[in-house]
Amino acid sequence: MVNTQQTAVLEVKNLSVALVATGNDIISEIDFTLQAGEVLGLVGESGSGKTTLSSALLGYTRHGAKIISGYVILNGQDILKLSDQQIRQIRGRRVAHVAQDPGTALNPALKIGQQFDELLEVHQPELTKAAHKQKILKILKEVGLASDNEFLKRYPHQLSGGQQQRVLLALAFILQPQLIILDEPTTALDVTTQSLVLNIIRQLCQEYQVAAIYVSHDLTVIKDIAHRVIVLYSGRIAEDAWLENLFEQPRHPYSFGLIQAIPDVAEKRELNPIQGHAPSPNHRSLGCAFSDRCAHATAKCRTARPHLASVEGAVHPHFIACHHPDWYLDTAPVHAANILNDSVLHIQDNVLRAAGINAWYGQHQVLFDVSLQIQRGECLALVGESGSGKTTLSKAIAGINESVTGELTLEGQTVPFQAKNRSLKQRHKLQYIFQNPYKALNPIHTIEHTLTKVVQHFFKTSATETAQRVSDVLKQVSLPDQIKYAYPRDLSGGERQRIAIARALLCQPDILICDEITSALDVSVQASILKLLQQLQQQGVTILFVTHNLGVVRAIADRVAVLQKGKIVETGDTDQVLSNPKHPYTQLLLAHAPSLFKTPSKTVSEQQLSCV
């Protein structure tokens, strides 16, 4: 437990950031303190202000925004009063940042050793080259990477995603900063790699007594890493609580809603997405910003804004911004999960069958004699670590992987592995939703143009009917109709992913292949998408769901196939595999899966570190 009596490393007072054009605030009245060695979780939906707040703590705002008030005091020094040159000097040395995507954060043209050398030469030029080398090798060992010259000669593209992320952690911690900001550093990682990276962060923060802010939309990860949690909504703090208080009894309706929307690997339960959308800075009400989505809102909530106040009787400091702090007394405890009765799957026939699939990247074989079948209306989850072959297999089935052999049948009819050789009907009935929606959407077309073209390509409809189909599908994926006038660059990552899902749904497919489509989504949006997929299943749509999130698997899948190094090592009914796994690899995945209802693994072996 962090000592709350010591002097704060970071004090944030009345921090507000506003849009330059309108003056409307993006975040406002942000107040909190952070102690040495303390990890603060910063959570909230897309648009809540997480990224704006974490950037402001570095003295930075995106184009079109500015810091209009407040203080960010780092060890007694207000960094917002520093010049640009002074701020650049403290970034990296006193305040470090770990980005979500290590592939773009690391310089692809520089070897790993050169990136460490550049950092040390800028911030610690007084040290000798020998001292630099010693520091580099020490930090590499601490993050579980090879501490030798051979590793330092590699380029970023020669490392796995987990290794790249640990290089970023080493770069952030090597100067022993006072504060480190981690922006969703494990979002794209599989469960075992994620668990190991979280353990490293925890150990380094404790060893170097670094205060950390961990930004995430995944509350199961926050439960695994943080001491304290701030829940942001519409640019303001909705709740500020110690970890145990938040998860045992959240006191703000929004926090409660987020936790209720989380799928969990430990048990299957009903997911309850928060209805509606968070308001933009230009469309906030005079009262509580959450009032339009809150079942407990009254007239006062819609006209008077609540301010952060201490919770009466709390053992640890606990603050909420709510006019009705006793609303929870009539609500069941959040940890009392609503267990679902498994519905019986009425199997009609095998809609898709793959037999003896082998696949290569260049000369490297990545799939070995893989066979599977999916029944109509079924959801089959394909799970495994990064590099196990999940995406390769799903792309082979979709017809977008060239080097494939084997046999693939769709509704009893053999289909070629190349999509260009398939009929229009076959392409129309099998749709693929990519993990990265930004690369999948044309940046020069509006959302309306993108979706309209899909309808026009597959269906002969009037302009009025086409427009109605576009509006209907946007409603299906929980997006406002006016979003169709935006471009992909104008949307958040979660919004872009929902557009990608909408585009696939417009094709009215029989089979949907979903490649990690919920990994970047807020838990509430994720819950709404999973409910949507369940509804599609009831209508007869078959789903192949590729994911590393075992909580999502528990919530949506009928069966699971576990891939390891290009081979299926275990398959079976979801509850059977996740509750009583037989293969050691499946057991390893489950041991490291984050959960609200089980104790996370906090041990890291050198053998495990060397594998990711």
Q: If you compute it from the alpha carbons, what radius of gyration comes out, rounded to the nearest whole angstrom? A: 25 Å
Sequence stretches where pLDDT stays below 50 over 5 or more residues: 335-347, 601-612
Question: What is the CATH H-level superfamily of the domain at 378-388 and 421-580?
Answer: P-loop containing nucleotide triphosphate hydrolases
* Strand runs, count: 22
For the largest beta-sheet, the strand count, sense and barrel status come to: 8 strands, mixed
Which shape, going by the Cα principal axes?
globular
Please state the structural category. Answer: alpha/beta
What is the end-to-end distance?
A: 29 Å
Strand content: 15-25%
Helix content: 25-40%
Named CATH topology of the domain at 378-388 and 421-580: Rossmann fold
Specify the number of helices.
Answer: 23
The CATH architecture assignment of the domain at 378-388 and 421-580 turns out to be 3-Layer(aba) Sandwich
Question: What is the averaged pLDDT score?
Answer: 88
Keywords: ATP-binding, Cell inner membrane, Cell membrane, Membrane, Nucleotide-binding, Translocase, Transport
Pfam family, one: oligo_HPY
GO molecular function: ATP binding; ATP hydrolysis activity
Domain ABC transporter: 10-259, 352-590
Describe what this molecule looks like in 3D.
It contains 23 helices and 22 strands. The chain is α/β, with parallel strands linked by helices and 612 residues long. Residues 335-347 and 601-612 have low confidence and may be disordered.
